[in-house]
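Chapter summary example: a protein plus cytidine-5'-monophosphate.
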Amino acid sequence: MTSRVAAVIPAAGSGQRMGRSTPKQFLRLDGVPILVHTLKVFEASPLIHEVCLVVPQGREKQCREELLEPYGLKKVTQTVPGGATRQDSVYRGLSTISPEAVRVVVHDGVRPFLSPELLKRVIKASETGDGAIAAVPLKDTPKYVHENGTVDRTPDRARLYLAQTPQVFLKNILIEAYSKAYVDGVNSTDDSALVERLGYRVRVVEGTWDNIKITTADDLDLAEKIIRMRRSERKRAKR
Ligand code: C5P
């Protein structure tokens, strides 16, 4: 029998960088809220057994009525209010998942283009170690820059990746990593960073370039382009 996998979807950001009053996770893409696009991937995956959705404080009921019920998102068993930082939001989500869950997938609510195939690859990779994350190799040459704006050095690009989500960990390890981070006063926007600092081994699985995080208005434009591209690909495949 496969072990139980829970997902925590942090979606409690205020979306300030988007410059709109509606948080970005509730904006529509192709007529459907961004967050619903994301949740549908988890709903459809046979590898996911339960989902905890973390939403802005006070929006729990609205999310259940306007997102979960109309779109039939039955795997979401918990809708919990988030905290001041992403870390606080994930921690709140983590504390509500069922005791039977063995692994936890953390995935940003604002990454709606996660493919079922990437989700599967990261979960499978996590089964052979402490955890696994999706990440993409750098395309441009990175520079380490002094505070005064001049180049300090040029790190080797071949070894550098940009972390994405999904990130998958054994539940006990992730809870330990979060608890220790609070004890040590560490705050991170990356779950893996909290696990790595305790010496656990995290595998890297190559992510996809369209698994973007919708943060700014430019990202929303790019997301609309990705939707159009996918639509024309589907049309071509039908011919
Ligand atoms: O702000 P950032 O781009 O890092 O957000 C990544 C994800 O974390 C988003 O889905 C956002 O809604 C979520 N988040 C959260 N609670 C916060 C801040 C961000 O759940 N306090």
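Key point: Residues 5-238 form a domain with the Spore Coat Polysaccharide Biosynthesis Protein SpsA; Chain A fold (CATH 3.90.550.10).
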